[in-house]
Design goal:
Layout: H1 5-16, E1 23-27, H2 50-63, E2 67-71, H3 73-89, H4 96-115, E3 121-122, E4 127-132, E5 137-142, H5 159-162, E6 165-166, H6 174-183, H7 205-216, E7 225-229, E8 234-238, E9 261-266, E10 271-275, E11 281-292, E12 302-307, E13 315-321, E14 328-337, E15 344-349, E16 352-359
Parallel strand pairs: 1-2, 3-6, 7-10
Antiparallel strand pairs: 4-5, 5-16, 7-8, 9-10, 11-14, 11-16, 12-13, 12-15, 13-14, 15-16
Helix pairs in contact: 1-2, 1-6, 3-4
């Protein structure tokens, strides 16, 4: 239970259906750390705050179910925060929510749930899950409410994790969930959705990395370097490749006659390459560490729709297998803008999530 309307409605629905429900909240990040990052008036719109823990406890009391807070701060820092920092310093753009799902929420949390006698966990993710008898596989599908669909962040889940998981909200739209919350009398029925990453209260990833290093007494490696155009001309200087991501336009601090965008970052040389919007188009990508969910690893070219970031409209492509079943080449029918290393490439067949991997 995150303290939001979605997980609260899940608890209420399961209780209505006669299930024995225990509410568990994960304490992931000490909100008192790095106070210099908290904006004036306090952080707003992020998940897992102290207020969220209070709201989750209040909902559990309202429903009359047992409730516990589980401290996963060490695991979260090791498996999510540090990789998040390392990826940015390596010139990649990470997805901390996916890492959290893979290594905390559907890993350690499942073990903890078993420790309190729960055979299954249920979450407020907007996704659908079914079991396919012929293949013997659990299949992940997009939610009915495509505007809230969260399957992009779930592509790393394994069969053994899906076998013990329920997504009760996959067949509802968000307005329907709000109405269910009102019918259940939940005190969070009108609570706004969370938006920001829980450990970055001001949304400034580079400032978070700098503050984290200061807190830990770590002297970062040299990060300043040159900003160049695609022809190699030096246009300016920067203070670290971790301050840039592919497709970024703002914050370049260089004068130009036309809008320029980050095309690539080169951590080894500390160079940032910028160019025009059309320079961002890519016809192919390679996805590594691919996790096949609803189908076995492909052995022949396979048609699919591919999503390369959460808000990206899935694009038609052909998936080509390689000698490594966890590595796939993706060739788009039409070039796609801002294919970003470190993001996920998730493969869909209709509403079925075939699998996904990390863009190299």
């Amino acid at each position: 239970m995150s303290g939001g309307v979605d997980s609260s409605v899940v608890a209420g629905l399961l209780q209505q259906r006669g299930a024995r429900v225990v509410g568990l909240t994960m304490q992931l990040w000490n909100q008192r750390r790095l106070p210099e990052l908290v904006p004036e008036g306090g952080p707003t719109g992020r998940c897992c705050s102290l207020d969220d823990v209070y709201d989750a406890r209040y909902v559990a009391q309202h429903l009359g179910i047992p409730y516990y807070v589980i401290n996963f701060e060490d695991r979260f820092e090791e498996q999510v925060v540090r990789p998040f920092i390392d990826e940015y310093l390596a010139g990649r753009t990470p997805i901390p929510c996916t890492l959290c799902n893979n290594f905390v929420k559907f890993d350690q949390f499942l073990d903890m749930a078993a420790g309190v006698g729960a055979s299954r966990i249920a979450t407020g993710h907007y996704a659908r899950l079914s079991y396919d008898e012929p293949s013997g596989r659990y299949q992940l599908r997009r939610s009915v409410d495509t505007s809230k669909d969260q399957t992009y962040f779930l592509f790393g889940l394994k069969q053994e994790q899906l076998a013990r998981t329920d997504f009760p909200l996959g067949g509802f739209t968000k307005p329907q969930v709000r109405e269910l919350a009102r019918e259940l009398g939940l005190p969070v029925a009108e609570k706004p959705d969370s938006q920001e990453i829980c450990f970055v209260p001001n949304g400034d990833y580079a400032a978070f990395i700098d503050a984290y290093f200061r807190e830990r007494g770590i002297e970062p490696d040299r990060t300043h370097g040159e900003i160049l155009d695609t022809e190699g001309h030096v246009l300016g200087e920067h203070e670290g490749v971790h301050r840039f991501t592919v497709g970024q336009r703002r914050g370049l601090r260089i004068a130009a006659r036309e809008p320029l965008y980050v095309i690539a970052t080169e951590p080894a040389s500390q160079r940032v390459i910028v160019g025009r919007n059309e320079d961002l188009l890519r016809a192919r990508l390679v996805a590594a560490d691919v996790n096949w969910i609803s189908i076995p690893p492909i052995s022949t070219p396979t048609r699919a729709h591919v999503r390369i970031r959460n808000k990206h409209l899935p694009a038609l492509a052909t998936l080509y297998p390689t000698t490594d079943p966890a590595r796939v080449e993706v060739h788009f029918d039409e070039p796609q803008r801002a294919v970003t290393p470190g993001q996920g490439a998730v493969f869909y067949g209709g509403d079925l999530v075939l699998g996904g991997g990390w863009i190299e």
